[in-house]
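Quick start: read one record
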Amino acid sequence: MVGLVAAGLVVAAPAQAEPLWPGGPDIPGVPAIIPPPPPAPVVAPCDASARMCMRLSTNEAWLMEDGRVTYGPTPISHGRPGYETPPGTFRVAFKREDHWSTLHHVPMKWAVFFNGDIATHIGPIEEQSHGCIRMTPEGAETTFHHLSPGDVVQVVV
């Protein structure tokens, strides 16, 4: 401690105040001197031509517009062993708000078909499928409204 001893008194030099947080003010209520950096943009691992991007290794999907992510990542699940969802670039063939799978006898709400009988739709994302992309209700509905027949869907590993 730096100080001066005079007549038995110790006088300390003023301490330098540390900011409350990095780039924050020295005094509560005073705005930060250095503004925080903007959040990093979300980047999807697909081409700019894709309107939907899905990564199987991380069970994530993104909706895109001109190469920029507009929604996501949103959680997905995909095909189990023996029924793998193939990677590739596909086009949306058709979509149905309330589809019924005659192959598996289950409802496929907000179905968007992009590779034969493979579609995105609501389903339990905790379980793998017979090749379809299962999504949360919010993710499936948002995907359904975002995509149109002919749009590019990319599936990457």
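The mean pLDDT is 87.
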